[in-house]
Specification:
By secondary structure, the chain is an alpha+beta fold. About 45% of the residues lie in helices and about 10% in strands. The protein folds into three domains: about 5-110, no CATH class; about 140-255, no CATH class; about 270-435, no CATH class. Helix 9 runs antiparallel to helix 13 (about 370-385) and helix 9 (about 270-300) packs across helix 14. The longest helix has about 40 residues, at about 390-430. The chain is elongated. Belongs to the GerABKA family.
């Protein structure tokens, strides 16, 4: 086993292979002491080093590193003789100060450069009313946004590092005494068991710790809104923040939460419930309308009213393809336009989406490749899919139409029903951090329906969801909340 000094020397030699790693020798002007300073140049904030470190390094009289450590006006400075610790801190933006080139002990001083964008409005989960702050790529800033909203000593943050190469900082956040300890333990154990070399975004964590990694349905809810994370923490859930990612993960989650916009809580409960039901109807419409079109024309045309049947016959009399072909043609065209619009610059992408849809749709009808009725249905299905508040669930909805189309082509409405049974069987077996994914619909928990398909008034939500198994199920006194008292009573 190599001696500590040899290990430190080997570590510095390895870092020295990179041209941005610097080791410079300075001389203290008071004592004449030579000082070795090592650092990775792009990671260092020169202003911090010049103002707070080098004046003491070059002009302050000290005989040991301990004396220098006590004189520096910085909190994050300490002595270390662990080569692995030195290497990690150098990579994070620390200065390594030694009094001799062969010393096995050095002083690590934080002079990290921090470059981050300013707080902006949410782009994916935009709301007309409510807060306009969103997470950014800085873990410290994101934790600040949460602590600002929950100034409680019970708000607990557990820090981890994931990725053998990236060493990405990750925070597990929960409210002690409200969150189920089993959920916290499950999240912590899965994160500690992650075996991957580089984790650069929270999306990696979703795929690495989900209960079923092969499912199309996301089992952790991702959000860019700190107000939403603060709200679910108060319910007893656990949040995961990853350094470098502007999205937080929430678990355990349920299927109905993916169709609930956080703006619902800023509106009157009747209006919010109406919008939530519209979203659920839109999802069902987006998935089933084109498969039902194919099944009906192929197998069940007798179900079509006579007046509508004439319209369908007229629109399809020039079409040389069976319904499944024209449906797939239009569905794939819509997906191509979506991908083109998403990958191109914003202004160009918007133009491609609008102009491309109009031109291709009109041309395909005039050329006799698709019927005008189907074009309307596909356009409505695409529009309905955009009502899904969570982007990742929207991708799932987009993909689910194609299996339904294939089953509809093979067995008609019976195939659609069979495919629906397959999806429901999968959802019934799916879990999020070990909790049922379909809760509170199944297993049925009627008391939790107050914030599921509809949202009842806040005064009716005195208890936390029972599926979370929180140690404190009571949020507030429901009876007192419903009382209306004036100040003069």
């Amino acid at each position: 086993m190599a001696a500590p000094s040899e290990s430190v020397w080997s570590m510095l030699q390895t870092l020295g292979c990179s041209l941005d790693f610097q080791t410079k020798v300075y001389r203290n002007q008071t004592s004449g002491q030579r000082i070795w300073v090592s650092y990775i140049e792009p990671m260092i904030d020169i202003e911090i080093a010049v103002k707070n470190i080098f004046p003491y390094l070059l002009h302050y009289h000290f005989s040991t590193l301990q004396d220098l450590c006590g004189a520096l006006p910085l909190d994050e400075a300490y002595l270390s003789s662990d080569p692995n610790d030195m290497k990690q801190k150098l990579l994070e933006g620390y200065l390594l100060i030694r009094l001799n080139e062969t010393d096995e002990t050095g002083l690590l001083v934080k002079a990290q450069k921090t470059l981050e964008r300013t707080l902006t409005i949410p782009e994916v989960e935009f709301s007309v009313v409510g807060p306009k702050e969103s997470f950014i790529e800085s873990l410290e800033t994101n934790l600040y946004l949460l602590r600002k909203r929950i100034p409680s000593d019970h708000l607990t943050v557990n820090m981890f590092r994931v990725g053998t190469l990236s060493k990405t900082k990750l925070a597990v956040v929960y409210i002690d005494g409200i969150a189920d300890p089993e959920n916290v333990q499950t999240v912590s154990q899965r994160i500690q068991a992650v075996e991957f070399d580089e984790v650069i975004d929270s999306s990696y964590i979703v795929q690495l710790i989900s209960d079923n990694r092969h499912s199309l349905f996301p089992q952790l809810l991702d959000t860019e809104r700190p107000d939403r994370v603060a709200a679910v923490l108060a319910e007893g859930k656990v949040a995961i923040l990853v350094d470098g990612s502007p999205h937080a993960l929430i678990g355990p989650t349920t299927l109905v939460e993916f169709f609930s916009s956080f703006e619902d809580y800023f509106l009157n409960w009747i209006i919010a419930s109406f919008f939530r039901l519209i979203r659920l109807f839109s999802v069902a419409f987006s998935i089933l309308i084109t498969p039902i079109y194919v099944a009906t024309l192929n197998y069940h045309y007798e179900l079509i009213p006579k007046d509508l049947l004439g319209t369908l016959i007229t629109s399809r009399k020039e079409i040389p393809f069976p319904p499944i072909v024209e449906v797939l043609f239009l569905e794939l065209t819509i997906e191509l336009l979506r991908e083109a619009g998403a990958r191109l610059p914003t202004k160009v992408g918007q133009t491609i989406g609008i102009v491309g849809g109009i031109v291709i749709g009109t041309a395909s009808v005039e050329a006799g490749l698709t019927s005008n009725v189907l074009l309307i249905l596909v356009a409505l299905a695409a529009l309905a899919s955009f009502t899904t508040p969570v982007y990742k669930m929207g991708n799932t909805i987009r993909l689910m139409r194609f299996p339904f189309l294939l089953f509809a082509e093979m067995w008609g409405l019976l195939g659609v029903a069979f495919c629906f049974c397959i999806v429901m069987t999968h959802l019934l077996s799916l879990t999020s951090l070990g909790r049922p994914f379909l809760a509170p619909l199944y297993p049925p928990r009627w008391k939790d329906w107050k914030d599921a398909l509809i949202r009842l008034p806040f005064t009716s939500q005195a208890k936390r969801p029972s599926s979370l198994r929180t140690p404190q199920p009571i949020r507030f006194d429901g009876k007192k909340a419903k009382e209306k008292r004036d100040i003069d009573e």
